[in-house]
Structure formats: structure tokens, C-alpha cells
Amino acid sequence: MAxxxxxxxxxxxxxxxxxxxxxxxxxxxxxxxxxxxxxxxWKQSNDGPWEGxxxxxxxxxxxxxxxxxxxxxxxxxxxxxxxxIFIDTEDEVWVESIDIxxx
Length: 103
Hints:
This protein is α+β, with helices and mostly antiparallel strands. It has helices at 17-27, 55-69, 94-97, and strands at residues 31-36, 44-47, 72-79, 82-88. It is built from 3 helices and 4 strands. The chain has a 4-stranded mixed beta sheet with strand order 2-1-4-3, with helices on one face. Residues 1-30 are annotated as: Disordered.
């Protein structure tokens, strides 16, 4: 009779992609991604907190900046690992117009 293997057995020598991706996500600083889903050429902006700033503070600053420019927020998602904001604008230079640092 051939030996059977346990399908639930964990091979301790096998590389774990889950562990590697968790390590990578913890080592990368959180970012705010802003996407324009409008009629302009597709662009995205990626920025994150500077020293002394929190991600939540930058997220709120970004939403205020977007509103002050008259851009329409189509959706926004926040988590401690990062944030996404989707806007709709025909402004071609919107990336340069949004400030997440509240200066």
C-alpha cells in the first residue's frame, strides 16, 4: 500500500508568498492614490504623509483640496494601510492642483 500524504500538512520549507507580501506591505509607508475617472487622459497621483503628518490628516486635506477646486468626488476609501480617492474632472492639470499636505 502506497503511503498517503496529508493535504493539510504545512511544508515548513516551502516559501510563503503570504508572509512575504505581508512583510512588504508593512515596510512600505501608507499612500493616498487619487484617480481621475473623468474624460481627460487617465492619470493617477500617489502621495503620502510627510514626517509628523498622519494618513487620516492627509486624506482629509486631499478631500478639502479637491472640493475647493470644484472637482467631483466619485468615491473615496480609507484604511490605515492607505487610501483611494476617485474624482471626475476635465481639468488636465488636476494632479498639480491637489494638495494633501494642507499648505
